[in-house]
Amino acid sequence: MDFKGANILSTRQFEKADIERVIEVAEELEPIAKKEQTSDLMKGKVLASLFYEASTRTRLSTETAMKRLGGEVITVIGEEYSSLKKGETLDDTGRIISCYADVMAMRHSEEGAVDKFADGATVPVINCGDGPGQHPTQALLDIFTIKKELGKLDGLTVAMSGDLKFGRTVHSLVYLLRHFDMKLVFIAPDQLKMPENIIKDLKNDGVEVEETADFTEGVKKADFFYATRVQQERFEDPSEYEKLKDVYVLTKKFVEDNNPDLVISHPLPRVGEITKDVDELKGAAYFRAAANGVAVRMALIALVTGVTGVLGVK
Ligand code: NCD
Fold this sequence. Notes:
This protein is an alpha/beta fold. It has two domains: about 10-135 and about 295-305, 3-Layer(aba) Sandwich (Rossmann fold), CATH 3.40.50; about 135-290, Rossmann fold, CATH 3.40.50. It is about 40% helix and about 15% strand. It has eleven helices and nine strands. The protein has helices spanning about 15-35, 55-70, 90-100, 115-120, 135-150, 170-175, 195-205, 215-220, 240-245, 250-260, 285-305; strands at about 45-50, 70-75, 105-110, 125-130, 155-160, 180-185, 210, 225, 265. The protein has a five-stranded parallel β-sheet with strand order 7-6-5-8-9, with helices on both faces. The protein has a four-stranded parallel β-sheet with strand order 2-1-3-4, sandwiched between helices. The radius of gyration is 19 Å and the shape is globular. The model has no long low-confidence stretch (mean pLDDT about 95). Bound molecules: N-carbamoyl-L-aspartate. N-carbamoyl-L-aspartate (NCD) binds near residues 57, 129, 138, 267 and 268.
């Protein structure tokens, strides 16, 4: 894709070369993300950060990415403080904020809302999560993490467990992983299975997919295991959530007994899917993944605003 001026709305828009480009720029920007170097790559540029749904990591790492590149951030947290509350349409809001910012990052609770916002926008929009839809920046940091942790992206088995029905992180990640020689194992009970249309897309692309409800069998097969939180906020019936919330729990003993070399990640927040003692394992990569989010979001901001090519960044 031509990154300059592009909206980053879905991982479906990424070709293999695009993923490799983001990884390459993120690797170059890592010393800045890790606070080892300073930068003014984005000096004079403004990021509008619009988070209409709960967020800690995504918002703060996106804003940190912009600030550590020397840029400025303007922000709205919560719909109640925006004109959307007064009935303004998303595309009007997109058009207006484009007058103030050079790039915009948005999270919204409705699937497709960020696309509507982007329809009105005249500067690049980065989707930071739209309901159960997509979360492309998370998926890019996840694939960056797989590459860093395992040293490669081909010849791997990746298992995902938990809420594969409502989880936008897994919905996004699989569309990146399909470009590599990977086997995907989806571990979920019937109520939380990966949507049929996504399975179909993957199979059409020739991806080897296995679905199971057997946690032990699934985890045993994996080189990289991705746990997810059951998405309480997407359930209409709270009792259904209560039944499913503790469906799979990864413990240190379980990993040691079944797959001691496993690399383990999670988009976070965890609410019981991974017990605290797992943190002691060398394969526990979820905090490293959260840190990787800064370099990856720096790369996306630099690419869509077209400022790479100066100050040593290729
Ligand atoms: C995820 C999200 O918001 O989709 N969190 C994140 O961005 N790191 C996962 C979740 O909330 O379960």
